[in-house]
Amino acid sequence: MNTEHLLLCIFPAILLVLMLIKIKIAPKGCIHEDFLSLQQCKIMQGIAAVCIVFHNLSQYITNYGNVWKGPITVFSSLGILFTTIFFFCSGFGLMQSLKTKPDYLKGFLKKRMPAVWIPFMISNGIYLVWLGMYFGKVDSVIDSLICFFGFRLLNTNTWFLVEIMILYLAFYFTHRFIKKQKNAMAAMSVFVGIMIIGSLLLGHDNSEMGGSWFMGEWWYNTTIFFLVGMYVSKYYDKILAFFKRNYKWLLPVSVLLFLVTFGLEEYVIRVFGYYKEWEGHPGYGAKLITLVAQILTCSFWLLTIMLVSMKVRIKNIVLVLLGKISLEIYVLHEIFRFFFTYEYDRNPVVLFTWVLVCSIALAIPLHLFQRWLIKLITADKKKTDPEYMTPEKRILEEEKKKRNRKLAIGAGIITLILSGLVISELYVMYVQPKVYYEEELGILADAKVGDVIPFGTMNTDYIKSGDERIFWLVADRQGDKLL
User: How many CA atoms lie less than 13 Å away from 471 in the CB half-sphere?
Assistant: First the structure.
């Protein structure tokens, strides 16, 4: 093992040391009853977010595990284990809140959705400027709007945010409008099943731009654990009682089964996998076998994590912070990975350092901004009778109205400009070609030798986007044939 491989081991080693600080092991015969509390779930998500950074960077520097870079290479195969934790904690947290908080669903959309939607939009904006415009991947107003609002993902890692928002909406509508919880859970199960099957059937996105929704195995190979989290919450007392009664044999068996199924899953990926597809052969059989193997592996992984958490509590100020900014770390790290690979492509240690430091450092102000924005959105807007307003209050209210009018006018102007640009592009894409075609037919019919005539379009000016008309010299004419 060379020096670089040893230095790369520092990063998971630092995370492990952080996990050991202030660790608390339950006495014999006891467990930590709060092993799935909100704070503990957040801490698990924080650790998982950092491990996902390790996973994505490891995939990059090892060419998806094909180039050995020491023990860090193993992380290129572990991504599904950490996304499992995110999905499970999300589903579990929703059901726990529904069970314990009165009228939880009334403010659900205002409180829960912005926490995911705001980082998603910030990521889309940064990627649109950086990758879309600067590197020329997006060259039209329509594509810019599609990418900005996330209907096509320039940062493909934000697939998780898209999916979790869809699952939040499904949870809200099923539990808001279906009165019996049993039926609501059944409806949610059907919805998740349709998501998984539909995504598997869509296959991979092989378009030039990429980033289409639900196209790729990462969209569905761990989704089911959102549902698992909901069911664990629903039957929490029974599951906890079962764990307590059978803990002595359950933990070693779950560890053993995880190791066995993980080895089997790695074999299945090599033999079958999600990429046994070509034209006329979607490879559904291989994908289904691989999906089953991965679900089994993640199930025993999740069981092991829960059982260990019952005995071992990891909690300190750093882990609590990572838990609070876990989603922001997940969103931002790919932006920095993309940026720093241009500078440190040949030095993985420096690349790991910069991506981790910058992702965590920027995640903190982004999290604070997101909290402020959510507070602003969800604040109760109480109307005060103008007759009972103080003069100062009346002045502030008038200033607020003026500011809102200016914002509304500005938003209207921007909307009109964008609408004009979109209409112009639609005209160029769908109407102008027909106009040109009709015109060119008439010109071709009357063309004489020596004439310069337009025929067809092509992007000949790479400074500006869009196609220009091509002009041709008529060298010869024989009947209805032109050279």
Answer: 4
